[in-house]
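Now for our specimen.

. . .
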Amino acid sequence: MNYIKHLNAVFKRFSKDSSLNATHISVYMALFQSWNIHRFKELFYIHRDEIMEMAKIGSNPTYHRCLRKLHDQKYIQYLPSHNPYKGSRVRMFIFDASSKQVVGKHETSSEQVLTPSINLNKQNKNLNKLELPQSENEVLIFFKNKNWPELEGRKFYNHYTSIGWSVRGNIKITNWHATAESWMLKANDFRSQSSVFQNRDNLKTTKYKNYGEPL
């Protein structure tokens, strides 16, 4: 996707669209930045707080109103989520200066200009597989292949789902396999430390104490 042609075309469309204001455009640019971070995936997850911060919006109703307006005007496809642990999804319609509108695979026409090559699509699919697991079962299979119990896989999935699949508060996970392996290493270290403390005899006593001897 040629993002320079896309931005030139979308700003040209903004200038002719009297139904939009600066707040709508600010939200769109925040979505574009998130799209960029996700390597221009066809469909990607967004997080409300993150988009509102980038767009400099402090009101939840304003945020949702802008998303719905951009959706209605066919700048994006907004797929809201009613799950508090799972973000909403967005599909960014692709625009090009040489065409009226270029959208995703679900809408095709002779006027579309699709710039990604087959090799790039394959590369993006591989990246998507590592970025976030598609389901809890995918995580459980990964842990099983690493000879880890199902319970540990469930703990890993529930933990990162509850914090929006990020580390240190705001850094989004880009390779969940690597994150899972780090989780396993930390779990091994914890088990080793626990074993040491359980086996440590701080009182230096013996199992066969002669209670006839004085203390």
Remarks:
- The first strand starts at residue 44 and ends at 46.
- The chain has two domains: 3-115, 132-199.
- The chain is about 50% helix and 5% strand.
- The CA atoms of residues 39 and 194 lie 42 Å apart.
